[in-house]
């Protein structure tokens, strides 16, 4: 389940209902499927898309999306550092950025027009739709692994439009989410 933090205010939100309420104030959709995967996270992309077809059709209808794909990023991904460099600076897109995380984790930093910068740390089972034109940037977490379904309105995908006065350098590109310690106890840090 996702974790939302507002670093400048020391706020942490970690229940699906509270996350949905908070993000909806900024036009961001969020859904949590929890740990209930419909297919193995490492299944071939066509099997993943087929397993999630009903959910994808619902989201595509809701947002006007026309295509979906599966992206796999691991430490072994060729050109990983260059790819991450494209998205870890404040930017916008001309269409929504939709991600449904299947495996791994990552963190969106959102810089709304009104309100403080906040972070949305995503885990398997989390879906987010960041509206077109929203200032944001993205980082992977420590394992540098994420597998996600992406939805697009334009089959060609999207390009980042960098913000000249971006504030991404003022925020740590770190994930602060749950860590598991021996014995199954869960601990987490408050940002």
Supply the number of helical segments.
4
The description of the largest β-sheet is: 5 strands, antiparallel
Radius of gyration, in angstroms, nearest whole number: 16 Å
Q: Uncertain spans, ≥5 residues at pLDDT below 50?
A: 178-191
> Can you count the beta strands?
14
- SSE string: EEHEHHEHEEEEEEEEEE
Helicity level = 10-25%
Q: What value does the average pLDDT take?
A: 87
Q: Which structural class best describes the helix and strand composition?
A: alpha+beta
Oligomer category: single chain
Strand-residue fraction?
25-35%
- The geometry reads as globular
Q: Looking across the biggest beta sheet, what order are the strands in?
A: 2-1-8-7-10
Q: Give the N-to-C terminal Cα separation.
A: 16 Å
How would you describe the overall organization of this protein?
With 191 residues, this protein is an alpha+beta fold. 18% of the residues lie in helices and 33% in strands. It is built from four helices and 14 strands. It has helices at residues 16-24, 45-51, 53-63, 80-87, and strands at 3-6, 11-13, 29-32, 67-73, 91-92, 97-104, 106-111, 118-122, 126-130, 135-140, 146-152, 161-162, 179-180, 186-187. It has a five-stranded antiparallel β-sheet with strand order 2-1-8-7-10, with no helix packed on it. Strand 7 (106-111) and strand 8 form a beta hairpin. The longest helix is centred in the N-terminal third of the chain and has 11 residues, at 53-63. It starts with a strand and ends with a strand. The relative contact order is 0.24. The model is unreliable at 178-191 (pLDDT under 50).
């Amino acid at each position: 389940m996702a974790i939302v933090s507002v670093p400048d205010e020391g706020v942490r939100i970690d229940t699906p209902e509270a996350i949905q309420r908070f993000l909806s104030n900024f036009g961001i959709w969020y859904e949590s499927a929890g740990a209930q995967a419909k297919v193995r996270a490492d299944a071939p992309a066509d099997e993943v898309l087929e397993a999630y077809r009903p959910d994808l059709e619902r989201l595509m209808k809701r947002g006007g999306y026309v295509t979906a794909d599966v992206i796999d990023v691991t430490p072994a991904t060729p050109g990983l550092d260059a790819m991450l460099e494209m998205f870890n600076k404040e930017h916008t897109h001309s269409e929504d950025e939709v991600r449904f995380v299947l495996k791994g984790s990552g963190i969106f930093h959102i810089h709304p027009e009104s309100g403080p910068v906040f972070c949305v740390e995503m885990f398997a089972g989390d879906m987010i739709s960041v509206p077109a034109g929203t200032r944001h940037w993205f980082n992977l977490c420590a394992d540098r692994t994420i597998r996600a379904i992406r939805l697009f309105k334009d089959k060609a995908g999207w390009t980042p439009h960098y913000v000249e006065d971006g504030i991404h350098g003022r925020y740590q590109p770190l994930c602060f989410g749950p860590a598991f310690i021996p014995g199954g106890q869960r601990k987490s840090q408050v940002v």
